Amino acid sequence: NEAITSLDESLASFIECGVAFHHAGLIHDRRAIIEEAFRKGYIKALTATPTLAAGVNLPARRVALTSYERYEPGYGRYPISVMEYKQMVGRAGRPNYDPIGESILIAKNDEEADFIMEHYIYAKPERIWSNLGAEPYLRSHVLSVIATDVAHSERKVLEFFSKTLYVQQMGMEPIVKPINEVLKSLEEHGFIKTIRNRIEATSLGRRVSELYIDPLSAAIMVDGFENRKSDEITDFALLHLIAHTPDVTPKLYPRRGEDERLTAVLELHRDELLIDVSDMYMGAVEFEALLGEIKTALVLYDWINEQSENVLLEKYGVEPGDLYRIVSTAEWLLYAAQELSKLMTLERLSSKIRVLRERVKFGVREELLPLVSLEGIGRVRARALYNA
Questions:
Q1: Taking 90 as the threshold, does the pLDDT of residue 106 lie above it?
Q2: Residue 11: is its pLDDT beyond 80?
Q3: Which residues contact 230 (CB under 8 A, 6 or more apart)?
Q4: DSSP letters of 276-292?
Q5: Residue range 67-71: average pLDDT?
Q6: Alpha helix ranges (H) inside 78-124
Q7: Where are the alpha helices (DSSP H) in the chain?
Q8: Would you say residue 24 has pLDDT above 50?
Q9: What is the rounded CA–CA span in Å between residue 90 and residue 151?
Q10: Is 152 in contact with 193 (CB distance < 8 Å)?
């Protein structure tokens, strides 16, 4: 009787969660509900992506991994790192939640079991190496050092980076040339300027640093806005523009059989795109990346036109978790685009991007924005109210 009563209470609470989600109609609300229901024990098991398994504090008694390999588009299957394995199984027996934790890594045969024991169970995590030398990280950090008035000369910038983990591990020589190239690139894009040997951040550069976006993403946006009149810029072109930036995650790739359809969409919208894509036709890798950008733009375009998660999954193979990340990233990048357009005094474009950002946030057509701004009204209920 106690067990049945407990189960009834759990089901009742979970039904309340489901009703709350139905009313809200938003991806991030459902995610929060699932996390909370899992913590309280209403949901007994989760099938999770590596991101959820490693990054969110969802305590579990038991963690099971079906394989030590992962498929990466363009690379095939490869073994995960020991560090990643330790992070994922670390969800089991979280401090302050559970005194016991169990982890299972499934082997296909005895030989693989021996390999797993040696290379994962008893293995030590790999040494941590700094990635600061990679250009995407350098771009943001070099601009930040100048924009926050930490350094105003090349010598001072180098002095700052001489104290980083990267230099302690790799030495100073490998990073000097990349920093010089980044400084040159930042000046070419108008993010910094040199006045009497003193390097200063421009108003554009300071705002880019405050927005925490890759300066290259900002440069792509600024160039795109300068290439076309505000009245000629379409929603699809804006969605493709942010999909073209290095900050967009996750990266989508065309599935088998999608190339023809995505190429047709590309040709249909080619004249309205805000970047020159002619060079991307030259190589197979570049063209695949371009089709991936078109696919990302299509997913977002269907999302703001109120297509359901199930439709997007069936049409593009985009899982709800990936859809959540794409939508969140797109909203963030559109906010950055809106702020940059303000600095460029493109008021009409800024207003257009603001509306598009709200549509991406809620996944609705423009006429539903007044309704979804009300608490408890999501895309599903808003459409029903509007139609009524």
A1: yes
A2: no
A3: 346, 348, 349, 352
A4: --GGGGSSHHHHHHHHH
A5: 87
A6: 82-89, 110-116
A7: 2-24, 27-40, 50-55, 82-89, 110-116, 135-147, 154-161, 165-170, 173-188, 203-211, 215-226, 235-243, 259-269, 284-304, 309-316, 320-343, 347-362, 369-372, 379-387
A8: no
A9: 40
A10: no
The closest of 304, 325, 324, 320 to 368, measured between CA atoms, is 304
Indicate the pTM of the whole model. Answer: 0.78
Q: What's residue 241's pLDDT?
A: 97
As beta bridge partners, residue 72 has 76
- Paired strand residues for 103: 63
d(CA 150, CA 156): 8
CA distances in angstroms from 341 to 121, 125, 216, 245, 334, listed in the order given: 52, 45, 16, 16, 10
Question: 15: how many CB neighbours lie within 10 A of its CB?
Answer: 11
The amino acid sitting at 266 is: L
What share of the chain has pLDDT > 90, as a percent? 68
Q: Report the residue count for the chain.
A: 388
pLDDT of 25 above 70:
no
| Residue 9 phi, psi dihedral angles, 5° rounding | -65, -40
> For residue 86, which of 118, 115, 59, 122 has the smallest C-alpha distance?
122
At 197, list the tokens.
């040997």
What is the pLDDT of the chain when averaged over all its residues? 88
CA atoms within 13 A on the CB side of 357: 17
- Stronger pLDDT, 186 or 38, i.e. the higher one: 186
Paired sense of beta strands 76-79 and 69-72, if any: antiparallel
